[in-house]
Amino acid sequence: MRGQPRLVNQPHLYQDLLDLVPSSSNALEFCLGTIAEMSEGDVYEAVEQYSRQDSIAYMHFRNVKGKVPHYHETFIDEGDIDMAKVLRILKENNFDGVLIPDHSPQMTCPAPWHSGMAYAMGYMKALMQVL
């Protein structure tokens, strides 16, 4: 990232961090966009693995198009991630953590951050009601 190496640059490497200190207090800040933009691995397999282990403390619910180094953030419903599929996996694994809308594309309006968050929250709420 920005020319600096990351400690974890592939989804399977998070398991090494969890295995260092096996504890229910050792859980992930799991960012869907970060996982999806990694050059290897599958975002749905990662969601399955870590939610099944109850290792996700909270999830940044954001979407992207592309992979490192050529990716960009999108609105929550426009990226490469099937967000409904992610929610189905979480539901199947009885995830009871927090979903946080995170990052939206730059907008030109009087309240760009608030508008992006409102759009993401509305989309998330609608998906949850459908499921």
Explain the overall architecture.
- The chain is an alpha/beta fold.
- The protein has helices at residues 14-20, 32-37, 43-52, 83-92, 112-130, and strands at 28-31, 56-61, 63-67, 70-74, 98-101.
- The strands form 2 sheets. A 3-stranded parallel beta sheet has the order 1-2-5.
- The N and C termini lie far apart (35 Å).
- The mean pLDDT is 92.
Task: Summarize this entry quickly.
This protein is α/β, with parallel strands linked by helices and 131 residues long. It is 40% helix and 18% strand. A hairpin with a 2-residue loop joins strand 3 and strand 4 (70-74).
Protein traits:
131 residues; 40% helix; two-stranded antiparallel ribbon; alpha/beta; three-stranded parallel sheet
Contiguous low-pLDDT stretches (5 residues minimum) are: none
Which sequence of SSEs, written as H and E, runs from N to C?
A: HEHHEEEHEH
Task: Determine the strand fraction and express it as a percent band.
Answer: 15-25%
Main sheet: strand order: 1-2-5
How many DSSP helices? Answer: 5
Rounded to the nearest angstrom, the radius of gyration is: 15 Å
Distance between the termini: 35 Å
Helix share bin: 25-40%
